[in-house]
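3.2 Worked example (two chains)
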Amino acid sequence: MMTIRTMTISDYDMVYALWMSCKNMGFNNLDDSKEGIEKFLNRNPNTSFVAVEDDAVVGIVLAGHDGRRGYIYHMSVAELYRRQGLGSMLVEKCLASLKEEGINKVALLVFNRNEVGNSFWEKQGFTARDDITYRNKELNKIIRIDT
């Protein structure tokens, strides 16, 4: 039987393995390390969820907020569990928790090459913006991990 529950750091190894199995996503060695995710979960303890079946993580949504805006950082569903509504259930749970914490707007990034991801987010009601340029700057040396 599948359950959806709040993510804890004890889920990390299975979550990371799921992330690495999904194509066209981007990670890095610092923010997505066990230590980085533990810091994130300590700051945002109620907004990330895992779907678990037979003691295995088959879906994950990693989300949080800064008090003003919500952000979905990573979303993955194991290939065998796709197109069954699991991703939508994880997103609904995540958005409800963010709304409960007083967040009014949620953003996310998807690589242009990730056609499956972009199609999914479009169906979830997330619109693409063409009026902004995304920029970032490394404060520490980061190694990208693209799947």
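3.2.1 Second chain
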Amino acid sequence: MPTMIDQPPQKNFVPWVGWVRIFAMLGVCICHACDPLNAFGAPGEKLWIEIYGSLIRPCVPLFVMLTGALLLPVEESFGGMWTKRCKRLVAPFLVWTAVYATIPWLLALMGINETEIQRVFFPFASPVHTDGLSVIRTFFLSLIQFNQYAVQLWYIYLLFGLYLFMPILSAWLRVATLRAKGGFLLLWVCSMLVFAWPMLLHGLLQIPGVDAFFGDYVTRFGINGHFATMQSFDTHPILGACDWNTFGAFHVFSGFVGYLVLGHVLKEICWSKMKTAFICIPAFLLGYAIVGVGTHWVWNTPDFSWKMAEFFWWYCSLPVAVMSASAFLLIKTFCNGTFALPIVKHFTRVGFGVFCAHYIFVTGSYYIYSCLWTEIPSALLVPLAAVTGLILAWVLMTFLYRIPKLPKLLG
């Protein structure tokens, strides 16, 4: 998410910017409130993961779009972006990585067994490492790979990459026309369609006679009747990608860079409330329907792989991009008043700390509510845990940010 260093001066504070952060952060919390349900819930309850998980897919794209809207085009050089922005992410990243690597060890010292640590705080950490040596190993490995305890910190790696690319992108944006920017976004859409190739191939293989046409391709990449659905793009590459080259024709246009440009473009769109609602609400619902129904289908396909469990949830997919652009414009248009402005400003200041700290508060809240009210329906438990975890992390960061020099370490 945009950090403290992405802020415009407070005197120029724009309300919709703060609201985008709040809605995106709530979406992240709902996403992570689904983790315990996914890990430990009954099969029948997991329908709510599909419903909520599909609904909040725009959460991360909203953060990236906001970064593009606020920063692009940047004035800094490549070195300036490192000094002004990337360098200031290093300390928070190291601090929060250390905190999350240490928590299982501290909980074990308190006499809590590994099973409970996993069930309460880290549903997808398997196994949970609680010895002192594992703390050190987890910390250093987390510098180069996904952290199974602080799952949200993957976004900081993304920010590093986006920040470093912004000076290069900005040089073009300064001279590009709106039509040229639209052309870039069109190629970005093409890159997302390329990654949907496995699903298209799966459909083609169900047509009599067509499977023979793809015979050599299927043999080359070991695809059978439904295998194409269960794997991802890198298993059966196209457009020049192959075993020794993972970069297909549209690779340079793919990924979250498109959301940076999209945010930069949408920032300038000023539609009426009626036009925004007329266009964006149906577009959001259409994207949601595709993502939700598609996810339900994949999850109920026999022998689906976990790599493909989030095929329709990929942030850089066309339905999610449609949802994200629609949500961005709806918030920008309808949340630009002075309502709760002091609260919105405060969240803007502490939001990055909330993002880094929220995970254990969300999963912990889920566990506590499920214990206090054993019959609580999942439909209520997930949003309740998300809101509670968000508030608790917000309160903690409010206190910690008052300690001198600590905000620089927390983000």
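3.3 Remarks
The longest helix spans residues 78-109.
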